[in-house]
# Entry
Amino acid sequence: MKSQSNNGLIVDSVSFSYGRKEALKDVSFTVEPGQFCALLGPNGAGKSTLFALLTRLITTRQGRIEVAGHNLLKSPRKALASMGVVFQQPTLDLDLTVAQNLRYFAALHGLAGRDAATRIDAALDRLAMRDRASEKVRALNGGHRRRTEIARTLLHDPKVLLLDEPTVGLDAATRQSITAHVHEITAENHLTTLWATHLTDEVGPTDRLVILHQGRIRADGIAADITGPTPLADRFLTLTEAA
Ligand SMILES: Nc1ncnc2c1ncn2[C@@H]1O[C@H](COP(=O)(O)OP(=O)(O)OP(=O)(O)O)[C@@H](O)[C@H]1O
# Structure
């Protein structure tokens, strides 16, 4: 996989250690534009460490990361500008309305006036949140807060979407609806989406699937090809039981 490039996401031979603790060991995979890729791993697999590297909260010189054709180490601004991120912990201001949260974020990206308003309306429409634009986030349930965050991350027209366990704490129906929204957005806008989760029911048979365990990739391919006739939950247990 050396030195090839695409407009999606490339993770090439990436390793990272916290002191002597190796959290990622020679991790390589690529996600193409238009693809929804589930990054599935149990607690401690290294998902958050990989997200921290992808968003440059931490850095490593071991390996290469490319985002929408931009090398994260050499062109961090362009790489980060191409990226939309939903972190595991919600980052909305609870005392602002949905629209105010989005307006603030748009301003951070240099978007204002009619352009910002149009983008905000379109993003809220996309997540079926337009009728809640003037509600304070504090009044929303967990699912609507997550939708607001996903709408917010679409405002600057990112090419690559990163979502770190975005359904944590939500009920099954809400998780299903948010997963479906993100699949649709990925296909419609030809986005490259990386969705970290430890829940096998969030992975569809046609999804791209990367299974991470103890910092190493245990499987990479289309989910149905990885599982064969075995249910994913069972296959996942087998792959992650092996040390
Ligand atoms: N700051 C840190 N210092 C030392 N070790 C760490 C640190 N952060 C994470 N680790 C270790 O690195 C490994 C990977 O952790 P990471 O949080 O990336 O996994 P994860 O897949 O995101 O798990 P979770 O689903 O529990 O968030 C784990 O063994 C964890 O204990």
In short: Residues 172-188 form the longest helix (17 residues).
